[in-house]
Amino acid sequence: MYHISKMEKEIARIKTKAGGAQGYMYSLTALSSGEYPVMSWGHKLPTSNVELGFGDVWKFGETSSKSDRYSSSVKEAIGIGGVQENQLYFGNQVQIKVAEKIAIYGYFLNNGHLPPGNKIFR
Questions:
Q1: Domain layout of the chain by residue ranges
Q2: Are 94 and 14 a contacting pair, CB within 8 Å?
Q3: Residue 8 to residues 15, 67, 94, 121: CA-CA distances in angstroms?
Q4: Can you give the pTM of this predicted structure?
Q5: Which end of the chain is more exposed for a tag (fewer CB within 10 A), N or C?
């Protein structure tokens, strides 16, 4: 399948780099059921909305920050009830980028689209 091959090539390329700084891979999940914005590549503002249930993934990401990637006010402003940041995987920059890529591609393969908060297969 095209997307699996693409993911494997991207992961192989990431693994050729040095480890880098420590950090974590996270998900942002819906804190209540309702409409959440869909972010699209090339657009600064949301392009549409989607219904998410409580706990549904809105976005996957990675950061080398020691604290939450987003401020409370930013997380509260996303969607109908805000999102919660969940630290899912800790490691060096290469490890967390690989974990993020697997999470995003896995979501796409299971749902047929990117998580609403992810603009690309980062």
A1: 2-111
A2: yes
A3: 11, 30, 14, 12
A4: 0.87
A5: N
* Predicted pLDDT at 67: 73
With pLDDT > 70 as the criterion, what percentage of the chain qualifies? 100
Select from 109, 85, 92, 95 the least CA-distant residue to 27. Answer: 85
DSSP string across 43-93: -SS--EEEEE-TT-EEEEEEE--SS-SS-HHHHHTSTTT-EEEEEEEEEEH
Cα 4 to chain centroid distance, Å, stands at 18
Q: What is the dihedral of CA 35, 56, 45, 110, to 10 degrees?
A: -120
- pLDDT, one tens digit per residue, over 2-52 is 888 888 888 888 888 888 899 999 999 999 999 999 999 999 999 999 999
Nearest Cα residue to 94 out of 20, 10, 8 = 20
- Residue type for position 86: N
Q: Which helix (H) or strand (E) holds 23?
A: strand 22-30
Cα–Cα distance, 14 to 10 (Å, whole number): 6
